[in-house]
Amino acid sequence: MASDYDYFVQQIKTNTGIDLSQYKEAQMLRRLTTLREKRGFKDFKAYSHAINGDAALLDEFLDRMTINVSEFYRNYQRWEVLERRILPDLLKKKKPLKIWSAACSTGEEPYTLAILLDRYAKGTSYTIHATDLDQRVLETAMVGKYNERALKEMPAAIKSAYFNQDGSVFQIKDELKQHIQFKQHNLLADAYDTNYDLIICRNVLIYFTEEAKADIYHKFSNSLAHNSYLFVGSTEQIFNPNVYGLGAVDTFFYQKQKTD
Ligand SMILES: C[S@@+](CC[C@H](N)C(=O)[O-])C[C@H]1O[C@@H](n2cnc3c(N)ncnc32)[C@H](O)[C@@H]1O
């Protein structure tokens, strides 16, 4: 017999298209149990019925399950590797560059990349597809307003060059926005575009089951052009990249192998 939580998982899938069974169960169950209890529902069945008819409860659930934390230049040293080792190689290639920032949350990651490209390859033609499951974070990303905390890794000179400051709010300059297309995309359910020169997907795969992760690595590999790169999060090292047609070029950077 399906458990109370399994019932909830099924209902959420039917009503939102989000498949919680592909997220690590212990972690997700813990997060959602705390929220359910806080709202006073005795079990997941009652909670899922309530969520169905209440947009605010659904919003709160989405907020809890997606975990949207991000920041500019998150794990600074990795961006240095991107700048020194990966970008020079990419810039030798055909242009314009086609880049995907998957699970981009509130936009810090695609904007960091746009800053890097502006600083080290000004005038390069490129497009960044910046996607996330959560439409609400994408709206924040499009507005491009951040607080000091999101910018804590950013050197002061970069901050003043690319943001307009109004009190404690930092507004990203419009010139960086023009290269970025924000769009909703579910990594577990939607089709993947192809021919990317670089895919950045950081700090989301840790929440998925091993099966879901493996499936996503295969899809990323199929989405990459030959010799192009995948950049993953600092706890998301791939231990068997060859299985996916990828080779490790640096810690947390993988290159699509030639298949001919
Ligand atoms: C912790 S944030 C990572 C943000 C950014 N990549 C970084 O490393 O700073 C995780 C993001 O993954 C998104 N997410 C969760 N499940 C997803 C899915 N199935 N498809 C696409 N994005 C998803 C969440 O909405 C959230 O914005």
Would you kindly provide a brief summary of this structure?
With 260 residues, the protein is of the alpha/beta class.
Shape: globular
CATH fold topology of the largest domain: Rossmann fold
CATH superfamily caption of the largest domain: Vaccinia Virus protein VP39
Helix content: 40-55%
The portion of residues forming beta strands comes to 15-25%
Q: Give the bound compounds.
A: S-adenosylmethionine
Spatially, the strands of the biggest sheet line up as 6-2-1-7-8-10-9
Order of helices and strands: HHHHHEHEHEHEEHEEHEEE
Number of β-strand runs: 10
| Low-confidence residue ranges | none
Give me the CATH architecture of the largest domain, please: 3-Layer(aba) Sandwich
What's the CATH class of the largest domain, please? Alpha Beta
How many helices does DSSP assign?
10
Structural summary, described in words:
The chain is an alpha/beta fold and 260 residues long. It folds into two domains: 63 residues, Chemotaxis Receptor Methyltransferase Cher, domain 1, CATH 1.10.155; 181 residues, Rossmann fold (3-Layer(aba) Sandwich), CATH 3.40.50. The strands form two sheets. Strands 6-2-1-7-8-10-9 form a seven-stranded mixed sheet. Strands 3-5-4 form a three-stranded antiparallel sheet. A hairpin with a 2-residue loop joins strand 4 and strand 5. Helix 1 packs parallel to helix 3. The longest helix is centred in the first third of the chain and has 16 residues. The chain is globular. It starts with a helix and ends with a strand. Bound molecules: S-adenosylmethionine. The site of S-adenosylmethionine (SAM) has 22 residues, from helix 6.
